[in-house]
């Protein structure tokens, strides 16, 4: 079972929605057209990761000394953590037929 899937039809949600969308953006399922939006877990995860990424960037920058490599390491860790946290979306419109 996928970590990020539509609560209605269980089709997978794209990683690009989790990474690049705003918290107010709604996601429309490709298969069943159900509308989903970010829930509180996604907002808390995102805010926590912003502060954690700033701390991680300053910590790794003191060891690596290359800003591009430090940014890449921080971004990879950020993507990994946001992808590992499940149930970041909830249904907005429950009256959708399959």
Brief account:
By secondary structure, the chain is mainly alpha-helical. It is 50% helix and 9% strand.
Please provide a written account of the structure:
With 98 residues, this protein is mainly alpha-helical. The chain is 50% helix and 9% strand. It contains three helices and three strands; from the N terminus they run αββααβ. The chain has helices spanning 15-20, 40-64, 67-84, and strands spanning 27-28, 35-38, 89-91. The protein has a three-stranded antiparallel sheet with strand order 1-2-3. It is elongated and about 50 Å long. The two termini are 19 Å apart. The mean pLDDT is 80.
List keywords for this structure.
3-stranded antiparallel β-sheet; mainly alpha; elongated; 98 residues
First CA to last CA: what distance?
A: 19 Å
The portion of residues forming beta strands comes to: 5-15%
Number of strands: 3
Average residue pLDDT:
80
Apparent shape: elongated
Q: What structural category arises from helix and sheet content?
A: mainly alpha
Secondary-structure element pattern, one letter each: HEEHHE
Strand order of the largest sheet: 1-2-3
Give the low-pLDDT segments: none
**For the CA atoms, what is the radius of gyration?**
16 Å
Largest beta-sheet details: 3 strands, antiparallel
Give the helix tally.
3
Helical fraction equals 40-55%
């Amino acid at each position: 079972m996928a970590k990020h899937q539509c609560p209605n039809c269980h089709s997978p949600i794209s990683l690009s929605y989790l990474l690049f969308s705003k918290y107010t953006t709604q996601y429309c399922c490709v298969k069943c057209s159900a509308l989903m939006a970010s829930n509180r877990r996604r907002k808390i995860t995102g805010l926590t990761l912003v502060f954690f990424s700033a701390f991680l960037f300053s910590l790794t920058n003191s060891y690596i000394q290359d800003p591009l490599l430090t940014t890449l390491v921080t971004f990879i860790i950020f993507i990994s953590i946001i992808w590992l946290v499940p149930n970041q979306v909830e249904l907005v419109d429950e009256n959708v037929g399959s």
